[in-house]
């Protein structure tokens, strides 16, 4: 056994057990685990950020389609003559048609396509003539309804879906006193 000597005196024998190597390996494993955890957290945050961006783009596209639908409806209402709900594939539905906008299969249902892709669509449903709040159904002397006591109401629904499966559906109510 090797002994350390100092001025002809024998000191302690040298024994090496590799404790520094073991501690170094444990610290290295801990640093690796912290690095992997940080990497995984960073990747998750990146995916969440991208998803948020796709959702925002889908919302903007649906809003653009909604504005386009309202402009098309306004142009249709301003045209003289009766409103034609029988035109195929135009996205207009009458009050008589059973249509639940929350249960629509947008891929197979008749809707007007707009926007950048075929997945940007809208439908317009005529709700009918509705009495304004606070008004009654009283008639004038000639049995005609009082002008301005009721309005024609439309529900405009738009939908956008992008390639990353982000989907947004928006609705608005369009009201006019003009006879459609």
How is this structure best described in words?
The protein starts with a strand and ends with a strand. Strands 3, 4, 5, 6 and 7 form a five-stranded mixed beta sheet that branches. The longest helix is centred in the N-terminal third of the chain and has 60 residues, at 19-78. The protein is rod-shaped and about 125 Å long. It is of the alpha+beta class and 180 residues long. It has one helix at 19-78; strands at residues 3-6, 9-13, 92-93, 112-113, 121-131, 150-161, 167-176. The protein has one helix and seven strands; from the N terminus they run ββαβββββ. The model has no long low-confidence stretch (mean pLDDT 79). Helices cover 33% and strands 26% of the residues. The protein has one domain (19-176).
Key traits:
180 residues, alpha+beta, 1 helix, 7 strands, 33% helix
Radius of gyration of CA atoms, rounded to a whole number: 36 Å
Biggest β-sheet: count, sense, barrel? 5 strands, mixed
Mean pLDDT: 79
SSE pattern, N- to C-terminal: EEHEEEEE
Give a count of the beta strands, DSSP E runs of length 2 or more. 7
Number of structural domains: 1
Number of helices: 1
Helix content: 25-40%
Distance between the termini: 108 Å
Percent of sequence in beta strands: 25-35%
Unreliable residue stretches = none
**Shape by Cα distribution:** rod-shaped
Blueprint (SSEs and pairs):
Layout: E1 3-6, E2 9-13, H1 19-78, E3 92-93, E4 112-113, E5 121-131, E6 150-161, E7 167-176
Parallel strand pairs: 3-5
Antiparallel strand pairs: 1-2, 4-5, 5-6, 6-7
């Amino acid at each position: 056994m090797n002994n350390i000597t100092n001025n002809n005196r024998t000191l302690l024998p040298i024994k090496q057990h590799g404790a520094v190597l073991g501690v170094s390996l444990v610290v290295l494993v801990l640093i690796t685990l912290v690095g992997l955890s940080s990497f995984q957290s960073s990747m998750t945050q990146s995916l969440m950020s991208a998803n948020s961006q796709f959702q925002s783009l889908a919302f903007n596209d649906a809003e653009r389609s909604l504005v386009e639908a309202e402009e098309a409806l306004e142009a249709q209402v301003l045209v003289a003559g009766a409103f034609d709900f029988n035109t195929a594939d135009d996205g207009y539905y009458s009050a008589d048609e059973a249509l639940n906008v929350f249960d629509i299969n947008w891929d197979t249902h008749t809707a007007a396509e707009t926007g950048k892709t075929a997945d940007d669509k809208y439908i317009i449903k005529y709700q009918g003539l509705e009495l304004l709040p606070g008004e009654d159904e009283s008639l004038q002397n000639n049995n005609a309804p009082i002008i301005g006591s009721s309005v024609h109401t439309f529900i405009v629904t738009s939908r956008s879906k992008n390639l990353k499966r982000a989907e947004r559906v928006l609705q608005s109510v369009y009201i006019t006193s003009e006879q459609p």
